[in-house]
Amino acid sequence: MSLTPNRPDTFTFWHNLNLEWVYTDLLRKIYAQTNNFHLANDLLHDAIVKFAVRNSVESILEPHAYLRSIVKHLIVDHHRYHARYVDVQALNFQEDINDDRFDMEASWLKSPERLADIKQRMHALQNIIDCLPAKCREVFWLYRIEGKSQIDIAQQLNISLNMVERHVMRALVDLSLAKDYLLSA
Q1: Where in the chain is the domain with CATH 1.10.10.10?
Q2: Would you say the pTM of this structure is higher than 0.70?
Q3: What is the separation, in whole angstroms, between the first and last Cα of the chain?
């Protein structure tokens, strides 16, 4: 059951925002996209702060739509940031770079065990990408591998920019979940 954001008779409002709607429906939707309760809370509170510091909060005609828009952009920004972040320690590489032994031939990089591990991870990554829906996989490839802009992809595939964003976000979420699973194994 979804709460109606515009029923002023029963809910607490703040700057024309139904707070019960914000902390139930909107938070639930953020959680569904992030699968992380703490992150969902952080993103919601960041969105509320961005909403509150706007100069003319009272002049917003659709405050709920505006807050949803802020949340959407924060989620996209979060996924973009984490898609570009490489955890060097997870690769067990940082200590060896700073070590004097790195100046030697670094034969450990070429060891059969290391190569087999890299090969297994690459196969796992390829399997995850192969499991994405065809359009999602194509958009992800064009965006992350070929480096095309989202606008160019939308024009090339004759889909909306919003759909390009959704496909990229879906692929990044799936890859992030798989990365967490692979690193925990």
Answers
A1: 105-184
A2: no
A3: 38
The whole-angstrom separation of Cα 33 and Cα 26 is 11
Domain range 105-184, its CATH number among 3.30.2350.10, 1.10.150.130, 1.10.10.10, 1.10.560.10 = 1.10.10.10
What average pLDDT score do residues 78-107 get? 59
* 10 vs 172: which has the higher pLDDT: 172
Secondary-structure breakdown of the chain: helix, strand, coil percentages, each rounded to the nearest 5: 75, 0, 25
DSSP track, 30-92: HHHHHS-HHHHHHHHHHHHHHHHTSTTGGG-S-HHHHHHHHHHHHHHHHHHHHHH---GGGGT
pLDDT at 107 > cutoff 80:
no
Residues with Cβ within 8 Å of residue 4, at least 6 apart in sequence: 18, 21
